[in-house]
Amino acid sequence: MADTLHRTPLTRDRILLAAVALADATGIQSLSMRNLAQDLGVVPMALYKHVANKDELLDGMIDVVVGEIDPPRQDTDWKQSVRLRILSARQMLIRHPWAPLAIESRNMATMAVLAYLDSVVATLRAGGFSTDLAHHVMHAMGSRILGFSQELFDASRRAGQTGVAEVDAPTGFPPEIAARFPHLAEISAAASHDDASTVGSGCDDQFEFEFALDLLLDGIDRLRQQGWTSSHRVR
Amino acid sequence: MADTLHRTPLTRDRILLAAVALADATGIQSLSMRNLAQDLGVVPMALYKHVANKDELLDGMIDVVVGEIDPPRQDTDWKQSVRLRILSARQMLIRHPWAPLAIESRNMATMAVLAYLDSVVATLRAGGFSTDLAHHVMHAMGSRILGFSQELFDASRRAGQTGVAEVDAPTGFPPEIAARFPHLAEISAAASHDDASTVGSGCDDQFEFEFALDLLLDGIDRLRQQGWTSSHRVR
DNA sequence: ACGGTAGGTGTACGCCGTACACCTGTCAAG
DNA sequence: CTTGACAGGTGTACGGCGTACACCTACCGT
After folding, report:
1. A230 vs chain B: nearest CA distance in angstroms?
2. What number is the average pLDDT over the span A12-38?
């Protein structure tokens, strides 16, 4: 039969890229070995000749997307370098909304993630940070260093949706909820009208991300300038 | 038969508490309707008379643990009040390490979570925050407001372990990894020796959490004092 | 006495990950 | 040219999952 001839041979890389594409399109919940195999025109068990199991597949997918983060810029100071790097990570996560959940549910860091973190620490050290302060800074940034928006409920991460999915309630949430949680309603309404550049959700996610990021970076810079150490706090 | 007599009747609350206990003990991964039913001495389908499906069960579990967070203190300023509240939330998450993943994987906030967030906003507003700034602050705090430690890989959250599980490598990570990621090794080593109060992982998680929390709160306080607004940044 | 109903039961279906035996095409060694 | 090892795709099967659906049963208000 001709159908088995000259089919592009299966490869670990081909599998990982297909898995990433499938997760991008349909959400991580509906990524199964069987779906993935079907996408590749192959029987499910064929995948296991190239990846040990589904967990290793997820690790591989994480390495793929982490590899998309821009390399560090050498031509600026630490602050700008770290800032741009993290914003690049955030762009990656916007392309792959399933990644935060996938990364957080794995129980060990992959090599690619470790390499990324290591290079961020390198930038800090080169910028004059003590090992001590650099360590606390990494903790303080936490998963934001990988671009996680840290939102409790950001619509973009949800499974399946294409992301532009015609938001049903542009003003935030339905009135009976607003009545029960007046303070949430108040700040939600404030966000909707005082910035005309936003659309849909009524809240500029990019602005919020940079707001939090700069809040942290500015605070960190202040500590660095003061020569902060954990043994005796400066003030 | 006597076995079916006088068995404590099934209740939504009894189910939720058993589910929380089971997740605490064995991890969220191994929480299945079948396991849970067995724990309750009941057939799996019996649960469906009290919860619509597994997702609703998870929502109920979230409400249970969020309800464990201390109510707001009224006798201090906003900063101390928010700080204590978040530290209480963190204690809750330490008791229920599965909660962050569960909360993040749900696609809508539960009523209890909304109520909690609303009361935090109320504290901010009472502390003199504009709706605008309060809104950005909530975004900046993100899931840390619920006590999420934001660590990329914190051993405590892993499925199953009892938490004290006799850490195998007290110094952090094995030498061949340390060689490949020298900067990570360096800050890891620094954390191990300069603070004798830590044990096991070589890193005081509580300290790291409060470090990041205070970094944010201090930065936020500075903005508040300056009368920061998003339309024109103060400097 | 009796019908309705709340709540526990049993069976079954379609998914999932994946162990294991099998087949087949390729290619180096004899 | 033969052969046999082996890399890589296939088919079948198993146990676990969530849960739809029909059933049974004990209670309770009339």
Report:
1. 9
2. 97
